[in-house]
């Protein structure tokens, strides 16, 4: 038997290091939803452009590459993978070299429109009751009509500390500077530092990971009737 209606959507946005990926995946696992990390697609496309030797600043060449971008991602929260063609890029897209160029491809409107369409198609393919979608413009552009929309924030200091604890190959100062400049670049294209109308803010500055997951689940449960 096929599924009868489209999956319910929990939309989560926030800046780098706010906890979007870890919190969204854990929340999805807890409520039996799928999970879609949209930043992974922007990263994978940046990886692809770089792999083809295209300059990320060459807008025409980057846009032309979209036609050959064969992307797939696992949306089961416990089976995460990211592939471009036959190549598994799950780890490669986290490389600082990718982080350094991803905002350049993400600023291009044609790239955003193409990936937004892809996200809607992937979300619609979910066989579960619902899907948690996480990124920068999910509450505003990708799924503005989602029943549940959350902005996950944390102070810049907390976000930098979390991210530099994860990356051992670079100094804390380098990691912080790169994150700050990526947030600056991204902010010129999408609004993810303040909540749009109807979006609930969860500030994790003074919460640990478990408490943040609980806070997000609280918001989801508040709207539970709508998604039951
Ligand atoms: N509330 C929190 N307290 C402490 N660490 C957290 C919290 N939320 C996330 N983290 C950790 O911070 C790091 C960055 O989180 P991540 O989910 O990758 O953020 P984002 O997807 O927003 O960039 C991860 O190592 C994660 O375990
Ligand atoms: N919905 C989204 C998600 C990511 N992105 C871009 O993709 C990059 C990587 O996103 P990410 O979610 O993996 O970044 P982190 O917050 O995990 O560091 C961002 O810096 C943005 O340039 C976007 O433009 N829109």
What small molecules are bound in this structure? adenosine-5'-diphosphate, cytidine-5'-diphosphate
Residue fraction in strands: 5-15%
Query: Mean pLDDT, nearest integer?
Result: 93
Percent of residues in helices comes to 40-55%
SSE series: EHEHHEEEHHEHEHHEHH
| SS summary, helix count | 10
Question: Quick one: how many beta strands?
Answer: 8
Largest sheet: 5 strands, parallel
Look at the helices and sheets and give the structural class: alpha/beta
Assembly type: single chain
Please tell me about this protein's structure:
With 228 residues, this protein is of the alpha/beta class. It has one domain: P-loop containing nucleotide triphosphate hydrolases (Rossmann fold), CATH 3.40.50.300. The protein has ten helices and eight strands. The strands form two sheets. The protein has a five-stranded parallel β-sheet, with helices on both faces. A three-stranded antiparallel β-sheet has the order 3-4-5, with helices on one face. It is globular. 37% of the residues are buried. The mean pLDDT is 93. Bound molecules: adenosine-5'-diphosphate (ADP) and cytidine-5'-diphosphate (CDP).
């Amino acid at each position: 038997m096929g599924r009868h209606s489209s999956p319910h959507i929990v939309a989560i946005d926030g800046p780098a290091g706010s906890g979007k990926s870890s919190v969204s995946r854990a929340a999805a696992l807890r409520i039996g939803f799928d999970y879609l990390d949209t930043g992974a697609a922007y990263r994978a496309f940046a990886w692809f452009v770089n792999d083809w030797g295209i300059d990320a600043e060459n807008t025409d060449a980057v846009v032309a590459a979209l036609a050959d971008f064969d992307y797939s991602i696992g949306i089961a929260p416990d089976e995460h993978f990211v592939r471009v063609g036959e190549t598994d890029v799950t780890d490669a897209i986290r490389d600082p070299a990718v982080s350094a160029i991803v905002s350049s491809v993400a600023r291009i409107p044609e790239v955003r429109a193409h990936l937004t369409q892809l996200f809607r198609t992937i979300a619609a393919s979910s066989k579960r009751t619902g899907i948690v979608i996480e990124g920068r413009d999910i509450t505003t552009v990708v799924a503005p009509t989602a029943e549940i929309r959350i902005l996950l924030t944390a102070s810049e200091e907390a976000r930098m500390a979390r991210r530099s604890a994860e990356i051992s190959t670079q100094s804390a100062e380098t990691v912080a500077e790169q994150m700050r400049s990526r947030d600056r670049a991204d902010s010129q294209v999408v609004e993810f530092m303040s909540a749009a109308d109807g979006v609930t803010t969860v500030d994790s500055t003074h919460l640990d990971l478990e408490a943040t997951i609980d806070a997000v689940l609280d918001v989801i449960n508040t709207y539970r009737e709508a998604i039951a």
